[in-house]
Each structure stands twice: as structure tokens, then as C-alpha cells.
Design goal:
Strands 23-25-1-26 form a 4-stranded mixed β-sheet. It starts with a strand and ends with a strand. Strand 12 and strand 13 form a beta hairpin. By secondary structure, it is of the alpha/beta class. It contains 14 helices and 26 strands. The radius of gyration is 21 Å and the shape is elongated. Bound molecules: uridine-diphosphate-N-acetylglucosamine. The site of uridine-diphosphate-N-acetylglucosamine has 20 residues, from helix 1, helix 5 and helix 6.
Length: 417
């Protein structure tokens, strides 16, 4: 298994390009199941989660042609196996996103239930309830969700918890249902809007994406489209925090500042100076940041996917920062590992109190999930000496060419095979 060896203490400076958004690409790839015509996508990030999704779509019968410019053509003319097997779903929960499209287009789907997950129990009950409200018959057998329906029917669906992939699954299913579907308490994340924009390009009738009420008027069929995936806001946020922690000065190109308000606001509060253009972000940071308090919540509030990175920021900032996680239980697994680098963090329930120290020290640590791993990379960038991060396959699920991009900014990062 690959490891990353990082020698800390380098100030990050320069410019990098931000990749396409993983969490927008995953549902958009699954949208190819909704039509028998080709869907061409630009700006597809090259990540393990994307390869897993392409393997899953190939298993279902979608013809896939990747090109060298970061594009992919998906052609689901004939879907031959309407199932998502356990072997693929267990490595990536987002595989559940094939359920709505397969059921809506083919009237049938068999999808493995996602198992336990490192960051909490993460059920899929709201996906299932929503599809049932649209007329699907759903049984759970031998660890699989078996869904059947004639044509789905539009329905008013209220979700009592804001769920990103739940909203996406139901929105995709509703595009081909008869009549109108109204999703209430829908997720407002930019990736939901990106999926809606792609579906609209394919001929869907969707209004209100980006608000908490999304109205979908079902159509008979969707058609071919060409769509460019939005930039990754979490990758952007992670590099901004990296540069800020090292007292650096960087520019992100092809980014999406408008989707990063909460993160940019916190970085400014910590002392960074940030200027945004429509698709680029400049950050300059002082030698030492101030610790910040934050609380994760659904968009447009502070994203849970940036919580661990800000914990790393607080670990060497001046003062004490209070970090409260409200979306996922058990999302503090990076804390144990950060303590091995010398961070002073106390946990009380879903809140972590981080007391900034002058210096962290390099050590061997283990990546536990995607964003937790990113926080260890950030801590390593400012730690004295060398940090070795094991099990970095977690990082490769969500960060394209992380060592190349960091080295381009002047860091010293080595991949050990
Ligand atoms: C998505 C993102 C993930 C991000 C998360 C929250 C993708 C591929 N992943 O995950 O990176 O951290 O949003 O912003 O886009 N819940 C239920 N019942 C359900 C579904 C969810 O109770 O049926 C709960 C979850 O346990 C959690 C909360 O709702 O407490 C939010 O989860 P959800 O938004 O569904 O996360 P994902 O869509 O899996």
C-alpha cells in the first residue's frame, strides 16, 4: 500500500489548477443511466471513486470512452445488469446513486445496502422512503435493496434530515416519473445544482435546485448532452488551508469562489487575506494564524468535509478553537493521529477543543478516511521533520495528484510505493 512522506516547514507559494468536483461527478456519471443516448462530460477528475463508479456503470452495461483531455463519453443504450454488487458498494457508499436512475428508466434495480462506514452509521432510509412515495415496491433481501416499479409517479416528498445523495437520487428518479415531484427540505449543496443543470441539459424539467424546495416535472425521456463538471470546492478549500497554515501565498485557478463563502469567511477570520475573481482565488497568510470556532451544517453553512482540515489549522494557530460536528457522528478519527504529531485536542461529545501549539512534530500516522487523511497531510506540511502517512488510498479517493500539486507549490512530498 502506498504511503506519503512529507518533510514539513516549507512555505507554499505559486499557482495550481483545481480539478473537477468528485461529489458532483459521481451523481452526474450515474445520470447517464437515465438515457439511451450518449452523455459527454468534461472536467472529470481522475480519482479512485470515479474509477469505481465507471466500473459500476460498465457492470450495468454503460459503454464508456475516456479521452486524454479529462472527458468521458457514457452511452447506456442497453442496460444489461440492473444491479450494484456488494463488492463495489462496500468501497464507495455513493454507489447508491444508481438506484434512482435504474429504477426510473428500467422499472427495476438491485443495489447492495452500504455497510457500516468509518464516519458514522449513514443510513439510506430517506432514499428508500422517497422512492416508495413515488410508487416503488422495495424489499430488503440478503443485504440487497430490491426495487420494482412500473413508471414512477410524481409525489410530494419531505425529508426530515437534509441529505445530499438522497436529494440527488430522488431528483434523478423524478425526471422520468409521471407528473410532478416536489422535494422539500432538499439539500442546497452546489453539487446538487450541478447535477440539476446537467439533467436540464439532458431535457429534464427541474426548478428550484439550490433552494430547499425542488420541483421536477417528469418527462417521457431524456436525451444526449454535453456537460462540464463544476470545480471541486473541497479540494479548493483544502489547498487554501494548506497555504494559510504555512504562511504562504497561492492562487487557485479554475476554482469556484462563490461555492466557498463559509470556508473563505473562516480563513479571513483566521487572518488570511483573500481575493476572488469569478474562477480564481488568491490567498496570502501571515506567519501565524488565529484559531477559529466553527460548527458544521448543511450548505451554505460550514461543510463537514472541511472540518478535519480546520482542525489541523487550529492545531498550530494562536489561541483555542472550538470545532463542532453536527452532520456525522464519529467524524473525529483524525484527532488520535493528530495528537501523535503533538496536537493538543480534547473532545467533549461532538465538539473538539483545539489548543494551538507553536510546532507539531513529524511522526508516522495512519489515514482513516478521505478528509481525515487530508487533515494529516496539512498537519505534516507544518510539522518539524518528516511525517509518513500510511494507507493513503483514502486520499487517492478524493484528491487528484495531491503530491504533484503540493510539490508544485514548493512542498516536499514523496509517494512511497
Ligand atoms: C454527501 C457527500 C459527503 C458529505 C456529505 C455531507 C457525496 C458523494 N458525498 O454524503 O462528502 O460529507 O454529503 O455534506 O456527495 N441520513 C439519514 N438518512 C438517509 C440519508 C442520510 O439519516 O437516508 C443522514 C446521515 O446519516 C447524515 C446526514 O443525513 O447524518 C447527512 O448525510 P448525507 O447528506 O446523506 O451524506 P451523503 O449524501 O452520504
Amino acid at each position: 500500500m502506498d504511503k506519503l512522506a512529507i518533510r514539513g516547514g516549507k512555505r507554499l507559494q505559486g499557482e495550481i489548477r483545481i480539478s473537477g468536483a468528485k461529489n458532483a461527478a459521481l451523481p452526474i456519471l450515474c445520470a447517464s443511466l437515465l438515457t439511451g443516448e450518449p452523455l459527454y462530460l468534461d472536467n472529470l477528475p481522475r480519482l479512485n471513486d470515479i474509477s469505481t463508479t465507471l466500473t459500476l456503470l460498465g457492470h450495468i452495461g454503460v459503454q464508456i470512452a475516456l479521452d486524454e483531455r479529462g472527458g468521458v463519453e457514457l452511452h447506456g443504450a442497453a442496460l444489461t445488469r440492473l444491479e450494484a454488487p456488494y463488492s463495489l458498494v462496500k468501497t464507495m457508499r455513493a454507489s447508491i446513486l444508481v438506484l434512482g436512475p435504474m429504477l426510473a428508466r428500467c422499472g427495476e434495480a438491485r443495489v447492495s445496502l452500504p455497510g457500516g462506514c468509518a464516519i458514522g452509521s449513514r443510513p439510506v432510509d430517506l432514499h428508500i422512503k422517497g422512492l416508495q412515495a413515488m410508487g416503488a415496491q422495495i424489499d430488503i433481501e440478503h443485504g440487497y435493496i430490491l426495487a420494482r416499479a412500473g413508471r414512477l409517479r410524481g409525489a410530494r416528498i419531505f425529508m426530515d434530515t437534509v441529505t445530499v445523495t438522497g436529494t440527488e437520487n430522488l431528483m434523478m428518479a423524478a425526471t422520468l416519473a409521471s407528473g410532478t415531484t416536489i422535494l422539500e427540505n432538499a439539500a442546497r449543496e452546489p453539487e446538487v445544482v450541478d447535477l440539476a443543470d446537467c439533467l436540464i441539459a439532458m431535457g429534464a424539467d427541474i426548478r428550484g435546485a439550490g433552494s430547499d424546495t425542488i420541483t421536477i416535472q417528469g418527462v417521457e425521456r431524456l436525451h444526449a448532452a454535453h456537460y462540464r463538471i463544476m470545480p471541486d470546492r473541497i479540494e479548493s478549500g483544502t489547498y487554501l488551508v494548506a497555504a494559510a497554515m504555512t504562511g504562504g501565498a497561492i492562487t487557485l485557478r479554475d476554482s469556484c469562489p462563490q461555492a466557498l463563502d463559509a470556508v473563505i469567511e473562516k480563513l479571513r477570520e483566521a487572518g488570511a487575506v483573500i481575493h476572488c475573481d469569478h474562477d480564481s482565488i488568491d490567498l496570502t497568510a501571515p506567519a501565524r494564524l488565529r484559531a477559529v470556532n466553527l460548527r458544521t451544517a448543511p450548505y451554505p453553512a460550514f461543510p463537514t468535509d472541511m472540518q478535519a482540515q480546520f482542525m489541523a489549522l487550529n492545531a498550530t494557530a494562536e489561541g483555542v478553537g472550538r470545532v463542532t460536528e453536527t452532520i456525522f457522528e464519529n467524524r473525529f478519527m483524525h484527532v488520535q493521529e493528530m495528537r501523535r504529531l503533538g496536537a493538543q485536542i480534547e473532545i467533549e461529545g461532538n465538539t473538539a477543543l483545539v489548543r494551538g501549539v507553536e510546532h507539531l512534530q513529524g511522526a508516522t500516522v495512519m489515514a482513516t478516511d478521505l478528509r481525515a487523511s487530508a487533515s494529516l497531510v496539512l498537519a505534516a506540511l507544518v510539522a518539524e521533520g518528516e511525517t509518513v502517512i500510511e494507507r493513503i488510498y483514502h486520499i487517492d479517493r478524493g484528491y487528484e495528484c495531491i503530491e504533484e500539486k503540493l510539490n508544485q507549490l514548493g512542498a516536499s512530498v514523496r509517494r512511497i510505493h
